Amino acid sequence: MTIDAPEMDVHVLMRTVDDLARTYEGVFSAETIERYVFESYTALARTATIKRYLAALARNFAADRLRALALAQGKIQSTVPQVLFVCVHNAGRSQVAAALLRHYAGSEVEVRSAGSLPASEVDPQVVEVLTARGIDMTGAFPKPLTDDVVRAADYVITMGCGDACPVYPGKNYLDWDLVDPAGQSPEITGQIIDDIDERVRTLWATVQK
Asked: d(Cα 189, Cα 180) in Å, to the nearest integer?
């Protein structure tokens, strides 16, 4: 597959294809894995302003999408709930909710987040406020919404992204009416995070029942 990318990135992507082909041997064809890896790179490249770590991010994005696809198709099984948070830019609200749920639930849940129109980076002020509260945001980056992660989810929580998220039967859909922290003062951002925190705690209590 051809792609407009630096030679070093192409080398990393092909190594990623080989690694994921071994992980999903007998589950997905090499062609499917290569397509997912290169499509993931291209999707992230559309919005990324800093290209230095793009191939590494694409590796993580493709790996998560392939796991979601395998779960959605019943090719692998998980014993924990699958939760997806979706907002417009995947830079604030959905990233906060995902980080908080991971913090509270740990390995008892698989959490993903995505954006209908992803930004180039997670809101630095959001990262700063969460980090000050002891919430790890290492490795978080905005990701476009893809069909595979929706199909894999048991719970889909949307936050102001309108009709961008496809609806499938058998899933629990919630819509949270939340203020976007983008451009807000640190005080308002903290209040928004408090609101999300309360909703996430309530959600986790529901998921555990």
From this structure: 9
Using pLDDT thresholds of 50, 70 and 90, give the confidence band for residue 83: very high
* Side-by-side strand order, sheet with 172-175: 110-115, 82-87, 155-159, 172-175
Dig out the tokens for 170 from the structure: 């058998």
SS (H, E, C) 112-176: EEEECCCCCCCCHHHHHHHHHCCCCCCCCCCCECCHHHHHHCCEEEEECCCCCCCCCCCCEEEEC
What are 168-192's pLDDT values in tens digits?
A: 888 999 999 999 999 999 999 999 9
Which domains, ranges and CATH numbers included, belong to the chain? Answer: 1-77 (1.10.8.1060), 78-209 (3.40.50.2300)
Which residue from 42, 10, 72 is spatially nearest to 143, judged by alpha carbons?
Answer: 42
- CB proximity list for 185: less than 8 A, separation 6 or greater: none
pLDDT in tens, 112-154: 999 999 999 999 999 999 999 999 898 899 999 999 999 999 9
Alpha-carbon distance of 50 to 112, in angstroms, equals 23
Q: In the beta sheet, which residues pair with residue 35?
A: none
Mean per-residue pLDDT over the chain, rounded:
94
Burial category of 113 from C-beta neighbours within 10 Å (exposed 0-12, middle 13-18, buried 19 and up)? buried
